[in-house]
């Protein structure tokens, strides 16, 4: 604590101006305790997450998953093992998952009944042999679904839960600012509060995030907290600066003060704060992402240096921030790989497929990496320095290695697509692809401590390029099921696209998934929202895959998954006691996420309890 007393002396040495009220409270101690309180809140969230942490890591295989990308030697595919799964109510499955008696509206293909019957028989005839389902620990949202539903209620671009958390945080800052003090007579207090929040803002911005490691939230899910904490810091810094400007102007000493170094550095720090806060707003992030990024790269280091030169007493807080950031950079370097990738254009989906054969393991489904294309020729000087996040589109340990699907939405993704197109239709010929050197950083994010294979049923709702995460999750469940490592027996994959043409490039993937799902009931429903059904000819689709016009009725689809899951038994007479809930994962634009959130929140409580919970996992593409 000695540094705190030293700091008090430093601040005490600052001249007390006439009319400026210096608080009698030990300001340093006050803001130090503010940070300790915030740490206690973090400890609370860590403790309530612990049961899920222990459950997940009770299996040794989880210890190494999702940390580092690497190459693993591929073994021959395992032979399917038989497990004691039974579908109690065959009619339920047949009705939803393919009976000709229950056609989907506007569907262009139906599953022939005999195929479903065959699949059902193969499952129902399974014998008791070795299997090892992962242990399941429901999320807190399952324990208190009504509470979770209220907290997930959307208000503007935040949920009620996020607003409550931000309100508590803001109230703490206000309390620390006003305790035995006044914003009008004691501008120093706001400076102390701003200083105490520097490490908080920085730790919330890091990719390898200490808070994310302790709780279940990846860095991109904590990003809203970083933005608001940064804004609160900027407000406090401005109150501090403007308070002194006001006092000095009244005293007529403003220009005199401007001659002193520590005041100039104070103004510099506040100006940096303002630049960071203004250029971080949604407007700039969406319209000029690079400006937002560059402003951070330049203004943030200047801000830290300016703080130390403004008041040396701020140095411990700045060093804490530098420590968090240094750890982040180090871990990011350790997680960085420079490899050769092959890029292919997929015009039907308006995206570029990136294949990295030399990295085929080390990620969990739903995780993303940050991609940099090291080609000045194709991407330009600026483009080759940019780094963009993309969800890994397949399971690990496949011959094609890691696959990314990068939809063209702006300059960078457009350039990548053009680069791939030139190669595809150039000398190498169609399908050859183009080899490029890429830098991959990650993996990050993912489903936290949830293990999809530990649930009884799963529903994936994907919008546009969000299908990448959903497909890899389904692939993993099917593969684990073949190995007897997945409890999931019912899978529904819903994909919403603009035109039916989007289905063509993914048809082989979907067909392969359906063929492999010999022991799991898989249904894939694709919905196109732009073309009229009359424009779409009759397409030859495999059993289990449907193509329909319009938007999906998510509530109805989820009810069907509930019905089927409730019909499953694991060798016992009823499903009671053997079910472990349904995971509903949504991956796509924020609007789709909200729809699914509402549907999950309004599931009949009795059915929810019967199936042991319906849990939502959101992976929104965007900041
Ligand atoms: C966790 C995560 C996973 C994602 N996974 C996929 C995926 O699998 N497939 C896919 O097609 N898209 C995915 N995206 C979106 C993808 O990263 C952006 O579409 C891409 O970065 C846009 O770059 P651009 O310069 O072409 O477009 P721009 O026009 O510059 O930007 C379009 C939008 O993307 C955002 N954006 C731009 N650059 C970045 C960046 N470096 N980091 C974060 N956001 C940025 C902007 O805020 C803007 O809203 C993902 C995004 C996130 C956050």
Distance between the termini: 38 Å
User: What is the count of structural domains?
Assistant: 3
Low-confidence stretches: 1-18, 82-129
Provide the gyration radius in Å. Answer: 28 Å
Largest sheet: 6 strands, antiparallel
Biggest sheet, spatial arrangement of strands: 7-6-9-4-5-8
* Count of individual beta strands: 16
* Mass-distribution shape: globular
Helix content: 40-55%
Q: How much strand?
A: 5-15%
Kindly name the structural category: alpha/beta
> Which molecules are bound in this entry?
flavin-adenine dinucleotide
Give the rounded overall mean pLDDT.
84
* Number of helices, counting only DSSP H or I runs of 4 residues or more: 23
Subcellular location: Cell membrane
Family: Belongs to the ferric reductase (FRE) family.
Organism: Jaapia argillacea MUCL 33604
Pfam family, one: Ferric_reduct
Features:
single chain, 623 residues, alpha/beta, Elongation Factor Tu (Ef-tu), domain 3, 6-stranded parallel beta sheet, binds flavin-adenine dinucleotide, transmembrane, ferric-chelate reductase (NADPH) activity, electron transport
Helix/strand layout:
Blueprint: H1 2-13, H2 27-57, E1 86-87, H3 90-96, H4 113-124, H5 140-143, H6 145-151, E2 154-155, E3 158-159, H7 160-178, H8 187-196, H9 198-205, H10 210-214, H11 219-251, H12 254-258, H13 261-279, H14 282-287, H15 289-310, H16 315-334, E4 336-346, E5 351-356, E6 367-373, H17 376-383, E7 388-391, E8 402-407, H18 411-424, E9 434-445, E10 457-463, H19 467-482, E11 490-497, H20 503-516, E12 521-528, E13 545-549, H21 554-566, E14 568-569, E15 582-587, H22 590-601, H23 605-610, E16 614-618
Parallel strand pairs: 10-11, 10-15, 11-12, 12-13, 15-16
Antiparallel strand pairs: 1-14, 2-3, 4-5, 4-9, 5-8, 6-7, 6-9
């Amino acid at each position: 604590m000695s540094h705190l007393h030293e700091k008090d002396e430093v601040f005490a040495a600052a001249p007390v101006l006439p009319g400026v009220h210096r608080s009698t409270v030990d300001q340093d101690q006050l803001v130090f305790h503010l940070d300790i309180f915030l740490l206690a809140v973090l400890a609370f969230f860590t403790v309530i997450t612990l049961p899920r942490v222990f459950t997940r890591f009770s299996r040794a295989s989880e210890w190494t998953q999702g940390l580092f990308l690497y190459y693993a030697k591929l073994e021959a595919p395992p032979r399917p093992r038989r497990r004691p799964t039974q579908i109690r109510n065959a009619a339920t499955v047949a009705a939803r998952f393919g009976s000709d008696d229950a056609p989907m509206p506007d569907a262009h293909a139906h599953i022939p009944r005999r195929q479903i019957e065959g699949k059902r028989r193969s499952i129902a005839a399974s014998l008791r042999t070795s299997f090892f389902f992962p242990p399941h620990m429901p999320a807190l949202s399952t324990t208190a679904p009504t509470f979770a539903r209220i907290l997930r209620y959307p208000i503007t671009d935040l949920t009620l839960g996020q607003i409550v958390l931000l309100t508590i945080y803001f109230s703490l800052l206000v309390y620390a600012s006003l305790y035995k003090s006044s914003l009008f007579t004691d501008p120093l207090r706001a400076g102390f509060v701003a200083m105490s929040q520097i490490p908080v803002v920085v730790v919330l911005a890091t990719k390898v995030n200490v808070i994310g490691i302790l709780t279940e939230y990846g860095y991109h899910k904590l990003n809203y907290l970083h933005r608001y904490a940064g804004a609160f810091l900027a407000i406090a810094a401005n109150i501090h600066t403007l308070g002194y400007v006001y006092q000095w102007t009244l005293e007529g000493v403003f220009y005199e003060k401007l001659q002193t170094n520590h005041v100039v550095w104070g103004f510099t720090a506040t100006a940096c704060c303002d630049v960071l806060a203004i250029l971080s707003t949604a407007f700039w992030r969406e319209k000029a992402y690079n400006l937002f990024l560059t402003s951070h790269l330049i203004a943030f280091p200047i801000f830290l240096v300016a703080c130390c030169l403004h008041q040396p007493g701020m140095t411990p807080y700045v060093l804490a921030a530098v420590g968090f950031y240094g750890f982040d950079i180090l871990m990011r370097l350790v997680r960085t790989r420079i490899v050769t990738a092959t890029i292919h254009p997929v015009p039907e989906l308006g995206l570029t497929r990136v294949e990295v054969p030399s990295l085929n393991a080390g990620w969990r489904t739903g995780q993303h990496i940050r991609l940099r294309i090291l080609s000045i020729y194709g991407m330009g000087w600026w483009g080759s320095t940019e780094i963009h996040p993309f969800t890994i589109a397949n399971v690990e340990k496949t011959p094609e290695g890691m696959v990314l699907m990068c939809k063209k939405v702006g300059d960078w993704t457009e350039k990548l697509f053009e680069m791939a197109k030139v190669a595809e239709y150039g000398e190498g010929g169609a399908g050859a692809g183009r080899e490029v050197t890429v830098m991959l950083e990650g993996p990050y994010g993912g489903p936290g401590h949830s293990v999809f294979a530990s649930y009884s049923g799963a529903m994936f709702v994907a919008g546009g390029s969000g299908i990448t995460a959903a497909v890899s999750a389904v692939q993993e469940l099917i593969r684990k099921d073949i190995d007897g490592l997945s409890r999931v027996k019912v899978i529904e994959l819903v994909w919403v696209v603009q035109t039916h043409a989007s289905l063509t490039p993914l048809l082989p993937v979907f067909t392969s998934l359906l063929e492999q799902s010999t022991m799991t009931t898989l249904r894939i429903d694709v919905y196109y929202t732009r073309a009229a059904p009359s424009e779409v000819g009759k397409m030859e689709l495999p059993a289990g895959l449907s193509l329909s016009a319009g938007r999906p009725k998510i509530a109805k689809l989820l009810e069907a998954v509930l019905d089927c899951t409730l019909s499953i038994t694991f060798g016992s007479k009823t499903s009671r006691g053997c079910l472990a809930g349904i995971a509903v994962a949504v991956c796509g634009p924020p609007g789709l996420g909200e729809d699914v959130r509402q549907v999950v929140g309004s599931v009949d409580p009795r059915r929810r309890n019967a199936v042991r919970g319906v849990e939502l996992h959101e992976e929104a593409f965007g900041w």
